[in-house]
Task: structure prediction
Amino acid sequence: MLDVDPRVTAFSFRRQHLDGTAPSALAVLEAVAGVYSSMPTGALSIRARSRGVTPDAIRALEGDRQAVRVRAMRTSAFLVARSQWARIAAATSVPDTRFAWLLRAADVADGELPGVRAAVLAAAAVPGSPAELRERLAAGDDDLPAWANGDRLRAILAVLTAYGDLVTVGGVSLSSNALRYVDRLVWLDRGAARSSASADPAPPDHEARAWLAGAYLRAFGPARVADLAWWAGWTRGRAADALAAHATTDLGDGLLLHADDLPAFETTTPLAPVLTLVPKWDAWTMGYPLDGRARFLDRDVHDRVFDGDGNGLAMVLRGGRALGAWAHRGERGRLAVDLDLFEPVRPAERDALETELAAIATFLGYRGAVVREEPSVIPNRRRQRRPFDG
Result:
């Protein structure tokens, strides 16, 4: 185990509300600047942070338009609070040229994009699946443009989602990623005409980046400039500039805190050795780069919880540190769980683990959980890199 101040683990764990103290699903999103929108990851990340939250409360985030799915940090898809999305979007925007490859995949030239955008947004005035949007684009005419078919339409939808013209809306199931696309302005202004919609205009980028840096430090700190840069998808220079807007305290090794958080940090007590289950791509475990994960992970087991592409798998934490990894799938109406524990656990811990997995199964609508131990739950594919070699 690396020499990590246990207060670093405990402080960020609690700031993430992984002790279950967030009062609501929306409070979770506001506290951690969003969770990954892929389901059931997003739902389970919220559940881990808000003790007693219900599936209906999570569905209501989108149904009541309290939250929206957008491209955000590192251009990944997040579920973020409606109150924060404009600042997050402005802070994490990237040049349109980043998505030029998607336009090429759709066989759409730059000059054609305005017309394509207008047509798609008109079709997406109400939420629709790709198939439904295609039907609306056809409007009784079988002579559709090439971009409106199959994978090309999906590429166009990805472009317009990346640009922020479209947002995605989930369905009833917390395990499904069948998304519907809708015009962002119309959706957030509850049906107002696009020409008159405001839908929370974005603040200046530099102000938005300063806000996001502050939000990151509150939720993920103590953290380094490099940690923020990786999480947000910024250069280190941009991250440093954004953090300069805040009064911070350096705890050593570049670990920064908001200056007014120092008294709370200094009185932080270590976490009790209780078990916490977090899903794949959890906000906390995906909040730091390779060399910033020591607060929750021992180096010798890193490759058992992160695959070669950098995806953090579902983890079993004991006292905030990784004790194992798990993966799940639906199997004949039950939640089939593969479990890789790094060391033996006591009978009471085993019982607690199986009880929690059964509760997760019920939460997701399965008829219980079936658990089996495996030597690894890393996907069986070629690793792209091994982060600690050499």
